Amino acid sequence: MSKSRIRPYHSPAGGWGSLEATGRALAVQGVAASGTATLLRMNQPQGFDCPGCAWPDPKHTSSFEFCENGAKAMAWEATVKRCTPEVLAKHTVAELTTWNDYDLEMLGRLTHPMRYDAACDRYLPVSWENAFADIAQILSEFDNADQAEFYTSGRASNEAAFLFQLFARAFGTNNFPDCSNMCHEPTSVGLPQSLGVGKGTVLLEDFDKADAILIFGQNPGTNSPRMMTPLRDAARRGAAILSFNPFRERALERFQAPQNPIEMLSLTSTPITSRFFQVRVGGDAAALKGMMKACIAMDDAAVAADEARLLDVNFIQGHTKGYEALAEDLRATSWPAIERASGLTQAELEDAARTYLHAESAILVYGMGLTQHHRGTENVRLLTNLALLRGNVGRPGAGICPVRGHSNVQGNRTVGITEKPTTEFLDRLRAAFGFEPPRHHGHDTVQAIEAMQAGRIRAFVALGGNFATAVPDTNLSQRVMRNLDLTVTISTKLNRGHLVHGREAYILPCLARSEVDVQASGPQSITVEDSMSMVHASAGRNAPASEHLLSESAIVADLARATLGSNPDIPWEELIADYDRIRDAIEAVFPIFQGYNARIRVPGGFHLTSLARERIWATPSGKAEFIVYEGLDEDPHQDDPEALWLTTMRSHDQYNTTLYSHSDRYRGVFNQRMVVFINEAEMDRRGLHAGERVALETISTDGVERLLKGFKVVPYRLPDGCCGAYYPEANPLVPLYAHDPQSGTPSYKAVPVRIRRMAQGA
Length: 762
Prior knowledge:
Elements: E1 11-12, H1 18-29, H2 33-41, H3 68-78, E2 82-83, H4 85-89, H5 93-97, H6 101-105, E3 109-110, E4 114-117, E5 122-125, H7 128-140, E6 148-152, H8 158-171, H9 185-194, E7 212-216, H10 220-223, H11 228-236, E8 240-244, E9 254-256, H12 261-266, E10 270-271, E11 275-277, H13 284-304, H14 313-319, E12 320-321, H15 323-332, H16 335-342, H17 346-357, E13 362-366, H18 368-371, H19 376-389, E14 399-402, H20 409-414, H21 423-433, H22 445-453, E15 459-463, H23 467-470, H24 474-481, E16 486-491, H25 496-499, E17 504-509, E18 518-519, E19 522-523, E20 526-529, E21 534-538, H26 552-564, H27 572-577, H28 579-589, H29 596-599, E22 606-607, E23 624-625, E24 644-649, E25 654-655, E26 658-659, E27 675-678, H30 680-686, E28 693-698, E29 707-715, E30 722-726, E31 751-757
Parallel strand pairs: 2-3, 6-15, 7-8, 7-13, 8-11, 12-23, 13-14, 15-16, 16-17, 24-30, 27-29
Antiparallel strand pairs: 1-9, 4-5, 4-17, 9-10, 18-19, 20-21, 21-22, 24-31, 25-26, 27-30, 28-29, 28-31
């Protein structure tokens, strides 16, 4: 096992080491000793991509560089536990609905296609042929194609996602609610407005050249642990790292690299963050405006003193539009208002601005703490403003770095999973496959739920994911999903999405990414795109969990063929026989994939060109554009004196909606998840005590009561006026109406709530 091919668990100081963490994850899932050997052998340079986060591999080797979370994700796939028809026959759906999400997935890998039987309230086995025929029959009876929703998880490969959108558009709809709608859609909407591209502008090697790295609303220690290595390396060479987050995330304070023997043997660690700024929940916009106000004031002072300019004036004049309006707005914004909204002082923000101005090159990193707000799209553009002031786009060691979540959520969008397709894309699809695709826009996630509520939707077809748990306003969303005629899920393991089903429901079990996928032409590779637009191949090495499994791509193609009938212009069987043919089709529709099959055979894959990285701005004006952010509030203001702003977050032992345990050792929480984090001053103000059970109630504006009971009070260092609880447990508190109007992304990171004390024994 080569050190260059395996990266152990990236740990904050005091965390577990790689062997213990990996062994624990494997043991929990029941992976046999031989399975462990198989797992580790996959780290040889054979082209495998971790099914966890989308952070790129070092040097783009396409080897499996896994951290603790990667080990857990692999263990979850490689478990020896099986959710067979015999297992499901023992439990009614009503009973399974009472189980928690962890216990559902602990049943193991699905092994057979299953159909819901209302008479016995159980899932029973069904043949693949009958499943496809029955689903096709139901879909054929719809009045119009827009009565169906096609959901995509970020786990799906480029090949499966491309076929999925091809199927849905040939069926006649652009209804594509997807996981990106719930997390980074503000990036896809906001960055094109500012820079002309919907993705980040940095490569991994830029982290080796940056003088400063600013991190907004992102917790890499939990959500993308492999990011900790470039941050550690940057900190050790003296780069300034500034973190803006309501939570003082442990991994961003100190980091112990398990692959470094000196740190491990001496029990030392590397300080990561140069300065931590605890913004209030919803205070990032005010903090960004405060930093920019300080930057402009310092530049004005330099001009007055006849000193060198601190802003990149040549870049601003030659490459941007809208600077004067921005500067006028910032000069008019008062410091007291910025301090109130951000929770930070003028001195703190001026200090951050000074560090930023004196960095020759800077990377601006952000996560869902910036995007999951009512003004998430504007937040992204506001952060881009800060980059443009110093020309930190399109040069080495600088740029915008959105940290996407799932391993191929970005790739799904690149190959056509979008409810708002461009005319150019649809024209190319028509030319390649000989049918007229629908031209009207379809539904995003929020619109899909609203359409279900209105009775306009009859079917929901999901390519992976756990939609019923991930969505906001969970009680409403699950209620309307149960009114559907049909639900279909393509999955590896049982989750709550299978229990929140329509009158007819099917579970179609698929191969995992770690498993060998053999088609007519032999073993296949799939491809994925990471957060930095690197595309690489991935081929599984494990034996399939069941002989009855089909690949995601094969399931989509067989379902499409059953539904649409024979069509020589869309040769589903030929496409599935050799995935090179799918990639040829992708290249025909998306010229950015030129030379697709040849380029993925080069070690490390290839980079999808970013025009903004070349300082070519595909905006209407032909320039990078500043935005004027009106006011300071990211979310609608609340005058209620009892209001606290709730932010939802993930535990360290969690990936998206998948729970690896009920503990969060980074925050000192064990064997429980129904907790609310709040600082001691706010506890005293409300007469609360540590360990007390309380209810959280959303301060709703639609007259609907959203109340969750049973949260345990946990004292935690947070800004005043804020509290935190785990996702997805707190999702019922997030109203469907609370979303970004531009991107549709729900405001998971800012929900106004009241804390209600509960009677003893309640």
